[in-house]
Structures are given as C-alpha cells and as structure tokens.
Design brief:
Blueprint: H1 3-6, H2 11-20, E1 38-43, H3 60-78, E2 81-86, E3 97-104, H4 108-116, H5 126-136, E4 143-150, H6 160-170, E5 173-181, H7 206-212, E6 216-219, H8 222-233
Parallel strand pairs: 1-2, 1-4, 4-5, 5-6
Antiparallel strand pairs: 2-3
Length: 252
C-alpha cells in the first residue's frame, strides 16, 4: 500500500475518538497530517515516580510506559518522530533537558527504549523543553507539531503562556498539543500568575495548546493516555495495530 493510501485510512474513526475525548474533529486539524515532523516532549521529572501521595497504586511512569508501547510503533510507521526528555540528569536541575534525537523515520524502538529505561527525577522545566523542541523543528521556517506529555506544572520559572504566544507569532505553522497525565495539585510547584485558573486535571501548560491551535487532553488511565497519543500524534492511523515485519498496520 502506498503512502497516499496509508494516509487516507478512515478519518471517521479519528472523528469518533476526538468526540470521545471531548473535542470536535475540526479542533485537531494538525493531527491529521503525517507529512509534518513531530517532537515528543516527555516528562521525566520526579513526580512521574510518585505513588500513594496522589492515590495511585503504581508510579505514573509504569502506566506511561505501557501506553507508549501500545501507540508509538503504529504512529512511527507513518510519521517522523523525535524525542526530548526533561527532568532527570546529572544535577536533576532546571537545565536537565535531554534531546535524545530529532525527527527520524521508524523511531519507535528508540523512543520505547528511552522511556522504558527512564529513571524519573528532578525538576519540571517544561517551558524550556518545549522551546528546545520548537528549535529542533526549525519552527520559524517549517511546519511541525509538538506533543508534550506532562503530569504537572512548570517548576523552573518558565512561562508557558508567553512561550505559546511567541511560537504562534514567530512560527510558520507550529502546533503544540498537551497531554495532562494524572495531573494533581502540587504544593511545591512554582507559584506563577499564569497558573491562576488551572486546577486539578489541568495544567498551565494548556496555554501552549491554546495559543498555537493545538489540543489539551486530560488522561487518567492507560487507555486514555493511549487515545490521547493517537489523537495528537497519530494522524489518520487511529486504531491501527502494530506494524509487523515491515508491513503496514491492519485495520482489523
């Protein structure tokens, strides 16, 4: 099956998933185009290892790993993906932003290995991590997409709302989608005026989606995180099974 055929698979299925996540299909126009490179910005901060405090029966990272294994192989078959992980590092400080690689074809093994081997720790410099991803995508001259997977707030003094405005004003056509995974109130997060109005289940990072025409999707379970990744990264390949032996995923 040719590339054009692969990219015209059942757009109605995408619409159904979008509706189930509380949004209309037209709100996710950037998610329908697999010709754009995309960067995943993944939260590896210390809160991803939390359990108990947030009434979880296992650390967030365990569920996030399962969701990535389920979704990324099918998505990477159709779209060039890159990866940035923020949080853990030599100093676990606000400069711990790890560009693993820019967009490449068939990136699934590298992404899954990186997340599986991730030992969460450190702060949450999500604003600077998204800025770095935009630069990798050459956002001023090329269209592209960023999907930020985060469980909390900015803790390094960044201003996501201001960054969103900057990306919208300076970018050629950059869309930032934000997945809020098990977002909870955090008494130790950075106290920012931008945070006003954002409560449990949302995060100030929603500004990045609001300002760039992207989607904000809340996810509490593995299945919801899978659906959120498919909506924001998966173009028209929602519901496709994992590729096998180089063959395109089936729709059965």
């Amino acid at each position: 099956m040719g590339a054009h055929a692969r990219l015209t698979i059942q757009s109605g299925l995408m619409a159904a998933v979008l509706t189930g996540l509380g949004g209309a299909p037209q709100d996710a126009r950037a998610s329908l185009n697999c010709t754009e490179d995309a960067m995943i910005v993944f939260d590896g901060s210390g809160s991803m290892s939390e359990m108990g405090f947030n009434l979880l029966d296992e650390p967030r990272i365990f569920e996030a790993r399962r969701a990535m294994r389920k979704t990324i192989p099918s998505i990477a078959y159709y779209r060039r993906l890159g990866l940035i992980i923020y949080g853990p590092g030599r100093n676990d400080g606000c400069d711990s932003i790890d560009l693993r690689f820019g967009p490449v074809e068939n990136a699934a093994p590298e992404i899954i290995t990186a997340v599986d081997n991730l030992n969460p720790g450190g702060m949450t410099p999500l604003t600077d991590a998204v800025r770095r991803a935009a630069e990798v995508l050459d956002f001023r001259d090329r269209s592209g997409a960023i999907v930020l997977v985060t469980d909390g707030k900015e803790t390094c003094g960044g201003a996501p709302c201001l960054l969103g405005e900057e990306l919208a004003a300076q970018g050629r056509d950059l869309t930032v989608h934000v997945i809020g995974f098990k977002v909870r109130s955090d008494f130790f997060s950075w106290d920012s005026p931008e945070q006003e109005g954002y409560t449990d289940g949302t995060t100030v990072a929603q500004c990045l989606a609001d300002r760039t025409g992207g989607r904000y999707v809340s996810a509490e379970t593995v299945d919801e995180l899978v659906a959120a990744l498919q909506v924001t990264l998966g173009c028209q390949v929602i519901g496709l099974s994992r590729p096998t032996n180089g063959e395109p995923p089936s729709t059965g």
